[in-house]
């Protein structure tokens, strides 16, 4: 069994960027994480270090069991400056405007870079491992980055809502406006997701079932 990270290494892992996995630490700490397969050094200048998929898993395991995951439980809290995409229906909504637009754009570009660095073939048109372990936030980020509007905390005025489902690697996307729902489907497909439109048996409402594409 792999020896667990030291306390200092754990702090570096915990402080990694939540989307890109970019690391900050001393050269000694970063080199030790690379040696253990928890990080890698980017070949291009400025040669930053990033978490590997194994490092991301350890970062998730490091989260206290009684603390909800930010992607599903507090998607827009903004606590400690951590970015989280809006999944729809949040009571606390980050302020709209140029600053939020820049944050979303930066997060999306970071996710594309993470795809390039962690997909074995460097593909940027296909979801990566981080997205498969953060399905709700990944799908919501793709929608928000494309300009779709999420549902507000009062459920008024329409807007998308992304939620987990019992199916593995699948999220449900609901949007009361049919044209907007189809636009969400087109956005997710362009972002590398497989999307199917379904009907709720009891209500007749249409919704999307989306899964990260593997090939």
TrEMBL record:
Superkingdom in the source lineage: Bacteria
Name under which the protein is recorded: Uncharacterized protein
Organism: Streptomyces lacrimifluminis
